[in-house]
Amino acid sequence: MVKRTQTAAAARGGPEDERLGIGKSFTYGFQHVLTMYGGIIAPPLIIGGAAGVSPAEIGLLVASCLFIGGLATILQSYGVPFFGSRLPLVQGTSFAGVATMTAIVADGGLPAVFGSVIASSVLGLLITPVFSRLVKYFPPVVTGTVITVIGLSLMPVAAKWAMGNNDKAPDFGSVSNIGLAALTLAIVLVLSKVAVPAISRLSILLSIVVGTVLAALLGKADFSEVGDGPIFALPTPFGFGAPTFDIAAIVSMSIVVLVTLTETTADLLAVGEIVGTRVGRRRIGDGLRADMASSAIAPVFNGFTQSAFAQNVGLVAITGVRSRFVVTAGGVVLLVLGMLPILGRVVAAIPYPVLGGAGLVLFGTVAASGIKTLSKVDYDGNLNLVIVAASVGLGMVPIAIPDFYHHFPAWVGTIFHSGISSAALLAVVLNLVFNHLKPGKAGSDPSVFATATRVIDYSDLKALSQLKNGDKIVDGKIVDAEGKPVPVRDADGRPVHYRIGSEPDAH
């Protein structure tokens, strides 16, 4: 933990305005970069692999994402008028759009991906003034469902990486490839258990390094092309060609942008609470505008949608370093790394089985975050369980059967081929129908799905074994601590109309 010292800047502003000096700022800023490094390099590796580009071009994508992530982080933390929350919030390539962009790249290539990111981000920028009014349509039951599906939809990527990624290679799926992935996974788990916080927090990054060294010793890593190309260079604008704009792809990415705006709003509120500073509507608006502006500019430099990195919000809480200038220094580090394409080529040379082993945990963490969000949802006396069940189910369809929409029009496939888009659309619609429109609200006798988390069996009611602390009798009926009716059913699951002290009437 770092003891905070009061400075003149902090006295005039909030805790986030404290200046620690150049040395400390860059030291703690580099820690932020290490914490998010594994997450920021994964999207360009996934999308570049799906696009079938060369290792050198994947290296360019990695360098570009580091570069634009640095620019976005500086804009968000340092800020300019109307853009930037001026909070210690790290920005980087969002996981939320990876599966959707992978689906888009299969049909239109990288230019279609870049075009959809530009158009959807501009749309997101335009709606930021009114987004605070739309947040109520993205409650935890929606965002938790979508984040869970994001993690689950990336699992096939991790599995293919573990097998070697190239299904035409003779060693694809070999014991040696899967064994290397398993070894990397084991290293992640071991390092996560280490009592040294700095090591456990960097377990993903360190496992990739150790796994790559072991792969090199086994002759399964090839770094011969790392030296081909410049060491230092600025990202080439539109290095993969001019962007193309496909309506279905834009609609699909626009859904992702709404989810991204919701996530960033949550991160802004969370970091404000951790820092101990007020985050009002204006500050949220400035933060969201920085998010969308950097996302719209990112494709110019061969980057993708930007969003706040939640793991770095956690790092602020763990270290106690609340200065936004520390994060700004981290953005400068990212910017410099993005101007070193040789670093991108090193990342591109990491064996896919190593990435697969680490990816299982990395992508699983995303799904676990969604499940954690869903654990906070109230499922009693409503249809939230139906929303989650149906949305996750629909989101899993294109993951289980990739050709499910093969015979549909191309625009249908582009939107629904992504499990994230499918789940998000259905979750939003069902949330509107069940939780905002009166005909869809669960009443005093809700459906069996709504009561699946708690149903009282009348035959055992007299023993009171099924009652909970806070339950009480009101007008002959059982209600819980919040005053909501508790459904009572007979042994066959049929609702029982009853009054305590009288015989039941089952229908």
Automatic annotation (TrEMBL):
<feature type="transmembrane region" description="Helical">
    <location>
        <begin position="58"/>
        <end position="75"/>
    </location>
</feature>
<keyword id="KW-0812">Transmembrane</keyword>
<feature type="transmembrane region" description="Helical">
    <location>
        <begin position="350"/>
        <end position="371"/>
    </location>
</feature>
<dbReference type="InterPro" id="IPR006043">
    <property type="entry name" value="NCS2"/>
</dbReference>
<feature type="transmembrane region" description="Helical">
    <location>
        <begin position="198"/>
        <end position="218"/>
    </location>
</feature>
<feature type="transmembrane region" description="Helical">
    <location>
        <begin position="112"/>
        <end position="131"/>
    </location>
</feature>
<feature type="transmembrane region" description="Helical">
    <location>
        <begin position="171"/>
        <end position="191"/>
    </location>
</feature>
<dbReference type="InterPro" id="IPR006042">
    <property type="entry name" value="Xan_ur_permease"/>
</dbReference>
<comment type="similarity">
    <text>Belongs to the nucleobase:cation symporter-2 (NCS2) (TC 2.A.40) family.</text>
</comment>
<protein>
    <submittedName>
        <fullName>Uracil permease</fullName>
    </submittedName>
</protein>
<feature type="transmembrane region" description="Helical">
    <location>
        <begin position="87"/>
        <end position="106"/>
    </location>
</feature>
<feature type="transmembrane region" description="Helical">
    <location>
        <begin position="408"/>
        <end position="434"/>
    </location>
</feature>
<feature type="transmembrane region" description="Helical">
    <location>
        <begin position="138"/>
        <end position="159"/>
    </location>
</feature>
<dbReference type="Pfam" id="PF00860">
    <property type="entry name" value="Xan_ur_permease"/>
</dbReference>
<feature type="transmembrane region" description="Helical">
    <location>
        <begin position="238"/>
        <end position="261"/>
    </location>
</feature>
<feature type="transmembrane region" description="Helical">
    <location>
        <begin position="383"/>
        <end position="402"/>
    </location>
</feature>
<keyword id="KW-1003">Cell membrane</keyword>
<dbReference type="GO" id="GO:0042907">
    <property type="term" value="F:xanthine transmembrane transporter activity"/>
</dbReference>
<keyword id="KW-1133">Transmembrane helix</keyword>
<dbReference type="InterPro" id="IPR017588">
    <property type="entry name" value="UacT-like"/>
</dbReference>
<feature type="transmembrane region" description="Helical">
    <location>
        <begin position="34"/>
        <end position="52"/>
    </location>
</feature>
<feature type="transmembrane region" description="Helical">
    <location>
        <begin position="325"/>
        <end position="344"/>
    </location>
</feature>
<keyword id="KW-0813">Transport</keyword>
<keyword id="KW-0472">Membrane</keyword>
<dbReference type="GO" id="GO:0005886">
    <property type="term" value="C:plasma membrane"/>
</dbReference>
